[in-house]
Structures are given as C-alpha cells and as structure tokens.
C-alpha cells in the first residue's frame, strides 16, 4: 500500500500530470490529443502518461492504431482515506477536485505560453 500511495502522490506532484488528469475529466483522449496543448515532445508526454498509469490514475488501451487514455478516479480513494486518518481532511469531493484540476490546467496553459496568470 505504501508504494502505491507514494506513486500516486509523486504523480500528482507534477503540474503537467495534473493538467493531463484535468483534461481526462472531460472524456477519454488519444495520446496525440493529450500531447497537443503542451510544448513538449510526444515522448515526454508518454513518460508522464506512464507515471500516471503506474500510479493507477489512468488506464491506457490500444484502439485501432491509436493509444487512448482514460481517467481512473477511484485511484484517488486510497490517498483520500490516508489523509482522513489525520482527522483534518474531509473525504475527497470529486466535483471540487474537477474544479481544482480545471484551474490548474488554466494556470498551467498560461504559464506555458509565457503570459502572466490573470
């Protein structure tokens, strides 16, 4: 359990990976579509996707010639339960988490473009 928890928190620590999770809240996406908004190579995005998959936060599957990514929100249950053990955290609200990720992707995309966040 500890190794999985470490993997989840490590995956969530990176802003690019949080942005990818936010994108996947909307729907499953092909890897090429996931990579499109980022100013990095497809290989770099693939490495981020591997980290997310190993943490159980996404699943990848081959559909025809394309590889697709799907969000696995149930993977957030383990860290949520762990944080509740401290008595200071409420159970994770996926609607609030979705809003948080949407704000992160908005901030991340303005940072990537060199513009100042509003």
Task: Please identify the top-level CATH class.
Answer: Mainly Alpha
| Percentage of residues in strands | 5-15%
Structural class per helix/strand content?
mainly alpha
Helix proportion: 55-70%
- In CATH terms, what is the fold-level topology? Arc Repressor Mutant, subunit A
CATH superfamily: Winged helix-like DNA-binding domain superfamily/Winged helix DNA-binding domain
Largest sheet: 3 strands, antiparallel
Count of discrete domains: 1
Oligomeric status of the shown chains? single chain
Beta strand count: 3
Low-pLDDT sequence parts: none
What does this protein structure show overall?
The chain has 118 residues and is mainly alpha-helical. The protein has helices at 2-12, 15-26, 31-35, 42-54, 77-84, 94-112; strands at 29-30, 58-63, 66-71. The chain has a single domain, classed as Orthogonal Bundle (Arc Repressor Mutant, subunit A), CATH 1.10.10. The protein contains 6 helices and 3 strands. The mean pLDDT is 86.
Question: How are the SSEs placed, and which strands pair?
Answer:
Layout: H1 2-12, H2 15-26, E1 29-30, H3 31-35, H4 42-54, E2 58-63, E3 66-71, H5 77-84, H6 94-112
Antiparallel strand pairs: 1-3, 2-3
Helix pairs in contact: 1-4, 2-6
Characteristic terms for this protein:
single chain; 118 residues; mainly alpha; Arc Repressor Mutant, subunit A; three-stranded antiparallel beta sheet; globular
Kindly summarize this structure in a few lines.
This protein is mainly alpha-helical and 118 residues long.
């Amino acid at each position: 359990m500890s190794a999985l928890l470490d993997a989840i928190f490590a995956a969530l620590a990176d802003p690019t990976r949080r942005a990818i999770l936010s994108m996947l809240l909307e729907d499953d996406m092909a890897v090429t579509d996931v990579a499109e908004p980022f100013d990095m190579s497809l290989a770099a995005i693939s490495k981020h996707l591997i980290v997310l998959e190993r943490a159980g936060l996404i699943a990848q599957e081959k559909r025809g010639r394309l590889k697709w990514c799907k969000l696995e929100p149930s993977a957030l249950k383990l860290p949520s339960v762990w944080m509740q053990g401290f008595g200071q955290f409420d159970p994770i609200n996926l609607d609030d988490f979705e809003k948080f990720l949407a704000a992160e992707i908005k901030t991340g995309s303005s940072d990537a473009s060199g513009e100042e966040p509003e």
